[in-house]
Amino acid sequence: MAAERAAIVVDGVSKRFRIPQERVHTLKERVLHPLRRPGYERLQALSDVSFDVAKGEFFGIVGRNGSGKSTLLKCMAGIYKIDAGRVFVDGRVSAFIELGVGFNMDLPARDNIIINATMLGLTRREARSRVDAVLDFAELREFADLRLKNYSSGMLVRLAFSVMIQVDADVLLIDEVLAVGDAAFQQKCYDEFNRLRREGRTVVLVTHDMGAVERFCDRAMLLERGRVVEIGEPRPVSMNYLQMNFARREQDAEEERSAREEQAIAASGGRPTNPGELRAGDGRAEIVGGWFRDADGQEVSVLESGTRCSFHMHVRFHADVSDPVFAFSLRNSRDERIVVCSSERQLRGESFAAGDEVVVSFFFVNLLAPDRYGVSATVARSGSGEAWLDNRERFRTVLVSSTSPSGGAVELPFEVALQRDIAGEQAEAEATS
C-alpha cells in the first residue's frame, strides 16, 4: 500500500523494556549501599513489526496475553518511544488504551470531559458544547459533578469511550479495555463501531473477542511474542489465534498429565492411567492412544465448529479377538454425554490376532458448541454390552472453538426465510380451492 493511501504505517518497529532485578525502596537502603547498582533484564516486547492500515479500514490486532498488542498500540499513539523503526499516522488520533489514563481522579466528570476533549484536539468551546452528548451516551448525567475517584471501573469505561467518539478523530485506537463494560454498554459500543465504519473512520481494535473481529474488521493481524505471525482476512486469523491459544494450554495440560502418569506408573507398576481416568477391561485389547484431525488431515487439539474432522484410536491386541466393537464418546464440561460413535453397524466380521495393531478412524461433521470435551474410548465384544476388552474414560480432552457461538449445545447449520403478505396468500389459496 502506498504511503499516501495509508492512514497508519508501522515500519520495522521494535520496543524493548529494561526490568530491574533489584529495586531500592527506601532512602536508608540507598545510603547504606551507595555503590550498589541494580542489574537489569531486557524484555523484547516488539520485534520488527511492520504493517499498514488504509484510510477508512477497520483493522484488528489479536494475540495471547503478553504478545505485545497493548505495547504496539501505545507506540502508535505516541505514549511509548520506540527503539527502532518508524510510525506514521495521518490525521487526528483518539486513543482508548488504558482505564483512567488522562483522567484527574480528583475532578468531576464534567471537568475531565473538557480537559480530555481539549487534549484530543478540540477547542475549549467545542469541548464544552459536547459535554452533554458525552454524558448522555455514557448514561452518567446524574453523576456529572461526582469526582472520578468515586466512579466504578464500568463508569470510567463508559466515560472514556464516550469522550473518544465525540472528538471527531480521523484514527481511533481502541484497546480491549472495553471488556470491562457490561453487556448492554458493549452492544452500544458495537453500534458506534457500525457508525464509524459507515463514516469511513480508520479504527484499530485490539481484542480477545474473535466474534467482534469477524463482525467488524476488514483485516486482522496476529501477534505472538512481539512478532507478526499473520496478516489477512479476519476469519483465518481468528481461527489461527484460537488454535494457537488453546493448543498452548492443551500442551501445558498434556505435559502435566504425562508427568503425573509417569509418577503413577512408577508407584504402581501397573499399566498407564491418567489422573481422573477410569479404566477397565479384560486386557485382551489395549487402547494405546487417540487423536483428532481436521479436514486437511492435520493433527489438532482444537476443532473448529462447523467443519469436517475425525477421531482416530490406536488399538493393540494382546489376544485373538473376533468381531470387536470400537467406540468413542464425548462429554461436555457439565459431564453430559453429547456424542457416541460406534463401529457396530459398519465394521462386522473383522478378526485380529495377538500382536496386531490397528487405527480405527471416525469421520464426522463437527456440530458441537464451543466447550472442552472429555474423550472416552472403548473396545468391546460384539453384542455383549459392557464386556470390555479395554475401556478408557476421559483419557484426554479436546477443545471446540467457534468465533460466533449460538449458545446452544450444538451448532446446527440452518437457513432463515421470511414470508410477507400471508393474508393475501391465504386468500388466494382459498379462492382456488
What is the residue-mean pLDDT, rounded to a whole number? 83
How many angstroms does the end-to-end distance come to?
A: 65 Å
From the structure provided, what is the oligomeric state, counting identical versus distinct chains?
Answer: single chain
- Strand arrangement across the biggest beta sheet: 5-6-7-3-8-9
Q: Approximately how much helix is present in the residues?
A: 25-40%
Q: Per DSSP, what share of the residues sits in E-state strands of 2 or more residues?
A: 25-35%
Choose one word for the global shape: extended
- Main β-sheet: number of strands, strand sense, barrel status? 6 strands, mixed
| Rg computed from alpha carbons, rounded to a whole number of angstroms | 29 Å
Strand-pairing-aware structural class: alpha+beta
- CATH architecture call of the largest domain: 3-Layer(aba) Sandwich
Number of domains: 2
- Separate helix tally: 10
CATH class of the largest domain: Alpha Beta
Characterize this entry briefly:
This protein is α+β, with helices and mostly antiparallel strands. It has ten helices and 21 strands. A hairpin with a 2-residue loop joins β8 and β9 (227-232).
Q: Which properties best describe this structure?
A:
Coagulation Factor XIII, Chain A, domain 1, 28% helix, six-stranded mixed beta sheet, 2 domains, 10 helices, alpha+beta, extended, Rossmann fold, 433 residues
Write up what this structure looks like.
With 433 residues, the chain is of the alpha+beta class. It folds into two domains: 3-242, P-loop containing nucleotide triphosphate hydrolases (Rossmann fold, 3-Layer(aba) Sandwich), CATH 3.40.50; 277-401, Distorted Sandwich (Coagulation Factor XIII, Chain A, domain 1), CATH 2.70.50.60. It has ten helices and 21 strands. 32% of the residues are buried.
